[in-house]
Queue: 4 jobs
Job 1
Amino acid sequence: MKQFLTEHWGDTASVAGLVVSLVGFVIAIRQASRARTAAQRAEIAANQIRSTIYGFDLLQNLTALTQILSEIVTLHRHAAWQAVVERYATARKFVVAIQAAGFAFSVKEKEVVASLRRQLAEMEKKVERVIVSENRPPDASRYNETIRQFQDDITQMTVRIRTKLEQRDVN
C-alpha cells in the first residue's frame, strides 16, 4: 500500500481533491438553498407587514368616514346646508381612498362604497343648487335615513376588516 501511494501520490491527491471539492460543492449548494429560503421568508414577512399597514390605513379611513357621516346627519338635522356641502366633499375623498386601497372587498362591499360615492355626489349637487337658488331645502330625514344605512354598511366592513387583520396577526 505504501509503495502504491508513493508511486501514485499524484493520482491519490487528485482523488482526494475531487472528494474535497465535491463535499465543498454540496455544502455550497445547501447554503445557497438555505439563503434562498431565508430570502423568500423575509419577502413573505415584508409583504405581510406591508399588507397589515395598508389594512390599518384602510381601517383608519373607514373610521374617519363613519365619523364624517355622523357629522353629516347632525348637519342635516340642523339644516346647516352650507357646512354639509364641505362634509360631503370630505366624505367622498375618503371613499375614493377606500376604493383605491385595493383591499379584497366583497362584491357587496364594492357596491356599497361605489353607491355611497354616487349618493354623496348627488346630495352635494342638490344642496348646492338649494344654496344658490334658495329653493326649498331637501328632506333631511330622508337624507339621514340614506346616510344611516351607509353608516351601518361601513361599520360592518370595518368590523370584517379588523377581524381579518387580527386573525392574520394571530397566525
Note: Helices lie at 2-7, 9-77, 81-100, 107-133, 140-170.
Job 2
Amino acid sequence: MKLPLYIVMLFIFQISFSQTIFGKWKTVDDISGKEKGVVEIFEHKGKIYGKVIEIFETDKKHIKCEKCDGDEKNKPVLGMNIIKGLAKDGSVYSGGKVLDPKIGKWYHCKITLDGKDKLIVRGYIGIPLFGRSQIWMRQK
C-alpha cells in the first residue's frame, strides 16, 4: 500500500518538530521539584534564546530582577530572556548563558534534549562539572 506523499511529509515534519528544543517548557526547580513557570525556547539570528512567558506562583508574577546587573536590572522577570546566545553543537546546545533571576547571576549554559519531551538545562561556572541541572518538561 502506497501512502500519499503529503501524508509521509506530514509524518516526517511531526517527528522532526517533536524532537527539537524549540517550544514551550515547564521549568521545574531542581531542589524543591516544584513547577515554577514556562520558558519559550526560540531561535533568533542563528542563536538560541529562552524567554519567561509564564510564572505559576501568583505572588511572583510581577517580581523584578533586583539583583541583576546591566539591561536586566530591575526589569520584570516575566518576559525576560533568561537563556541567551546558545548554538547547536551536534545534539547539544551550548556556548551561551542562562540567568538565575533569583540571585541575578549568569552562568554558562548547556542544553540537551532527552527524548522528545524532556530538556536538561545545565548552568555552570567554568566547566559543566561545576554546576547544576534542571529538567524541564515540554508543555503540551
Note: Residues 5-18 form the longest helix (14 residues).
Job 3
Amino acid sequence: MKARAPGVVPAVHAAAAVLAAAGLGWTGWYGVAEPVVALAFGLLIAAGELARWGALPGEREPAPLGAAGGLAYALLAENAGQATTHGVPQVVAVVTAGALAGAVPHVARGRGPVLDHVARRVITVTFAAVCVQPLHGPGAPVEALATGPGHALVMLLVPVLTALCDAVLAALMVRARTRYPFGPLLREELRSLPGIGSAVCATGAVLALGTAVAGLWALPVFCLPLLLTQLSFRRFAAVRTTYRQTIASLARATEIAGYTPHGHAHRVAALSAAVGRELGLSGPDLTVLEYAALMHDIGQLSLVDPVPDGATALLPAQEQRRIALLGGAVVRQTGVPRAVAVVVERQADPYREQPLPARIVRTVNAYDDLTGESAGSALAALEQLRLGTAHDHHPEVVESLARVLARGGLGPAQPG
C-alpha cells in the first residue's frame, strides 16, 4: 500500500490559499496602489512562470525569473526615487495572480506538480514582504533599517532567510509525501542554494534596488544575468542527464546480452536510491549509489556461461566476489567516479567490511534476484534476507528496505 501525503502538504496548501485570498481580497477592496508598478512586476512573474521548464535532476528552482520577480516586489521600497506604498497584501495579490497566470498553460498541458510550486512561492514571498514592507513609509517601527547601512543589511539578510524558508518548506513537503528522513532532505535542499538559489536571491535584491533608482526600466536590464545563469545551469543539468543516460545504456548491456532479466538494473537502481534516502544519503552520495546500482552486474559480461536468470545472489560467495571485481575493473574504464567502481567491487564482501552504498546494492540486488517479477514472494525474500543478517546483509539496510516496500516501493517523485 502506498503512503498517503499526511497533513503537512494540505496544511501548506491551505496556508497559501488563505494568504492568497486575504491578499486578493484586501487589494480588491482598497484598490491597487501604483498600478503600473504592480502590472510590471505581475507580468515579470507571469513570464517567469511561463518560461518554467520541466525540472531536471539536480535543479531545485524551475522558474528562477518568477522567483526573483516575486522577491524583488516584496523588497521594493521606491520606484525611481518615489516611495512605494503597495504593502504586504498587494505583494501577495500580485505574486499570486502572476504565478497562477503563468501556471495555466502548464496545467493545461499536464505539466506538474504546479500546486506545490505556487503554494511555496506565495508563502515565501509573504515571508519576505512581512520582513521588509513594514520598514517603509510613515510610522516605520525601525526607521534605521529603511535607509543607509541598515537597509543594505536587510536587503542582504531577507533574501537569504527567504531562501532558507523555501528550503525548509520543500523538505517538509517531500518528507510528508515520501516519509524519507527530514534531515538529509533539508541538507540536499541547502546544498542546492549556492547554485541557482543564490542567483535568484541576488537578482531579486538587485531588481528592487535598481528599480528604486532607475525605475521600471531596471527590470529587463537586471533580469539578463539571471537568464544567462539559468541557461548555463540548464546546459550543465542537461549534460548530467546525458551522462546518466549513458550509464543507464551501458547497464543495459547485460540485459541485451541475455545475462540478466529485463529491467533488473533499473529496478535495483530505483529501489537502492529509495533505501539510500531512507538511510539518510543525499546529494553526491546518492548519485554514486544510483550509478553503482545501475552497473552492479556489468562484471557478468566477462563470464563464458551466463548465471541462471542473472541471479548472482544465489552464487557461492567466492564466485560473487570474482564477478564483483570483474565489474569494478570494467567500471574503472568508463570514466565514472572512482567511488562507483569501489561500490561495485565491494558489493559481495561481508557487510561489516562494506561502505554503506555497497551494503545497499548487495541487499537490494539480492531482493530483486529472490523475487524476480513475482510480487507474491516479497515476504519470503525479506525473511531470507533477515536470515542472512549475520554475515551477508546489514540488519538496518534490510529493515530500511522493508519500510520502503511497505510504503509501496519507490514512492512519489519529488516535486520540482
Note: Strands lie at 78-79, 82-83.
Job 4
Amino acid sequence: MSAAGRLRRFLAARAAIDARALAAFRIGLGSVLLLDLLLRLRNVRSFYTDYGVLPRETLYREFPGFASVSIHALSGGLALQLALFAVAAALAVCLLVGYHSRLAAFLSLVLLVSLQARNPVVLNAGDSLLRRLLLWSVLLPLGRAWSVDAARTSESRTLGPLASIATAGLLVQVVAVYAVNAALKLQGDAWLSGTAVRYVFSLDQFLRPLGELLAGFPALLTAADYAWVALLLASPLLLLTTGRVRGAVAALLSLGHLGMLATMTLGVFPLVTVTALLVFQPPLVWDRLPDPQPRFDRLAARLPELPRPQTPWALVRRGTRVVAALLLCFVLVWNAAAVGVVQTPENAPVQPSERSWDMFAPEPLSTDGWYIAPAFTTTGENVDAWNGGTVSYAKPPDVSKTYPSARWRKYLATVALFDGRSLAGEFAGYLCREWNATHDSKLARVSVVFVAQPTRLDRPEPTENRTLANRTCGR
C-alpha cells in the first residue's frame, strides 16, 4: 500500500464512530434534552416571560443579537412558552427513539437555540456544548442502529464503524473542549500547584452533601487536582488512538464528570459531556451489549410513517460533506483563538462563556457568596424578599440552598458581574412582582445585595456586602 493509502487508512480509523455508539449518543442527546426541559420548566415563568427577570424589553436592549433569533421572544406570556416546551419535548422523544432522527435533531436544534437565546444570562458551557452536539447530529446518520428509522430502512443492518468528515468533526469538537481547557489551566498556577480543586470545593454555593464531606479532605482534593489535569492532558489520545485505549480514556473522563455530578450542582453539564464521550467507545464495548433493535421494531409498527420527499441523495451527501468541512474548519479556528493562537474580533456577538471552554480555568473562582434582598413593606416591616424571613447578612447554614437551581446561580452570578445595572434592577423588579403576588403584605422598596466571601483556604474569610440595585416597587 502506498504512503498516501496508509495515511488515509490511518485517518479513517481515527475518524470512525461505531453505528451503535452513534445510536447511544442519539439516545443520550434525547434524554438530556428532556431533562434540560424538565429542569427549565420549574422556572419557565421566572426566566422566559415578561413577568420574570428578563422581560423582552431588556432582552432586546441588552442582547439584541440573541433576541433576533428567539422564537420564544415572540410573546412575553406563559402560554407560548409552555407550547414551545411541549413541542421541544416531543421532538426530544422522537430523537431518543430514532423516529425521523435527522429531522428531529434539526428541529430540536432550532428550538434549543431559540430557548437559549430567550435568556442568555442563565447559560453555561454545557448549553454551548449541547447546541454544538445537536448541530453535528444533523449531519450524522443517527438512525443507523437502535431506532425506528433502522426498522424501516431497506438497507442492510450491518453495524460497524462509520467514517466521514462529519464523524471527524464531532470527535474533534469533543476533544477541543478538553484540549482547550487543559491549555487554559496550564496558564494558571492553582492547577499546577494542586490547590485548584480545594478552591473549587471551598465554594459552598456549588456543593452537594457529598462535596461538603469531601471538602474536609484536602489531601484527597489535591490528588484529584493532579489526576484531572493528567486526564485533560491525555485527552488528545481520543483522536490519536483507537480501540481499548480510546475507550479507556473516554471512560475515565466520564467517571470524572460523574464525580462532578455527585459532588456539585452543575445542571446538565456533566451529563452532556458523558453523552458526548459515548462516541469514542469502540465496537468491542457494544458487542457485549444485547441488541435492543427488536424493541424499536415493535415501536415502529405502532408509529405512523411520515411521507418522505423525493430527495436527490447524491446532492445532499455532497452538501453535507461541504457543510461538515466548513464546520470542522470553524471548530479548529475558534478553539485556536480560545488559547490565543489566532485572534477573533473583539466585538464578536457572543457571550464570554462562548469564547472558550474555560471552566474553572485558568484559575478557579476565588470568591464564594450568597444573595439577600432587604426590603420594606408598605406597613414598614423589614423582610428578605429573596430568602424569606428577616434580613440577615450572616452566612447561611447551607449556601447552596439559597440558590434554587444551577440556572439561578448562573443568573445571579451574571447579575453581579454585569457592567450595567439593568439586570440587577430587573431582578429587583421581579422580586417586587413575585412577593406582591404571593404575600398579603406588599413591598414598597427592595435592594439586591451580594455578600461576597473571598476564599482563603486555611485562613479567616471575611465578607463584603455589595449592593447591586435599589428599587421602588410599583414603578
Note: The two ends are 78 Å apart (CA to CA).
